[in-house]
Amino acid sequence: MNKDQMTPMERFSAYDKGEPLDRLPCVPVVGNGAARVLGCKISEFRDNGPLIAEAHLAAYRRFGYDTVRIFTDLYVLAEAMGANVCYPPDETAHLENSAIDDIAHIGRLQPVDPRRDGNLPALLQALEIAHERVGHEVPVAGAVVCPLTTASFLIGTDNLVRMMHRNPEGVHSLCEIALASALNYARAVLDIGCTFGLTEPVSSSTIISPAHFEKFSYPYLKRLCDFMHEHSKPVTLHICGKTERIWPLMADAGADCISIDEMEDLRKTKESVGHRVRVMGNVATAETLLQGSPADVRAETLDCIRKAHDNPRGFIVASGCSLPTEVPFANIDAMLDTVREVGWPVTVAKLDSMT
């Protein structure tokens, strides 16, 4: 942490105001890889808020990135509503069975109570601990899984996609229940004093069409964004995979910052919606951060900065998505050290000299 001249809170505040800062914000999205920093197993995070907090605090102190994001897996809301989730000994959880297998059983589903159901109480406890310990110096954020993705876990992704053609009202009914759960969790996160980011992988154009995004995902994203803005909180929205054709709708929904996956071009994002939203991304998680060398990470980080440092609404250097758990620490260091070396203000001449 002593490599930086500002805390993340100071850095974001200065950036938002157009004031001088020491470097661009940088967020390698560390998820369950935090367990590797602390030396525990991922399965130990289950129902253990203090351990989740200690792992993420250890990772933040080790690397010095700009947001502490408390997140374990995508299934937390669906599991709290009845989906069956498998917890391997030392890998990220995966969905075993959806909560229902037929829309006729939708009456079995109830919105979550985040202080009682599933692993949500542990996540809230982790957020409370992290906020108390470091919330004065770094944003502490929960991750809210958005309605369409949670709906897919409630009835199965294949079933949900078929329903978009055969039973659109059933999709909306599932999304309404999932939205109620997301809002319940979001309220609990805000009550702690934290913020949150929105994650909606099933809305990717890799999975559904832009038309289906507009019909089945956009209305619920907008209601989540409106809720955040009513509480004076900015919204960061991540959708995995291909998203170019829905960037304008992501902005229309109310996202203040959009997180771009590695297969998209940050320059195109900047040119398309950079006058409306901050852009975040997009060093490749597997090919570069997991499998590459520190030199590879440095080169790609510089490329991302070159493409998007002058985005009108600002730019956050980040991984394209959550990091695989086994990303070498040296590669995370290389990403942050490159951003530190570039410094501020960012100039093309400085980038050229580093290439």
TrEMBL record:
Signal peptide span: none
GO biological process per UniProt: porphyrin-containing compound biosynthetic process
Molecular function terms, GO-annotated: uroporphyrinogen decarboxylase activity
InterPro entries associated with the record: Methanogen_methyltrans, UROD/MetE-like_sf, Uroporphyrinogen_deCOase
A Pfam match: URO-D
PANTHER family reported for this sequence: METHYLCOBAMIDE:COM METHYLTRANSFERASE MTBA
Name assigned to this protein: Uroporphyrinogen decarboxylase
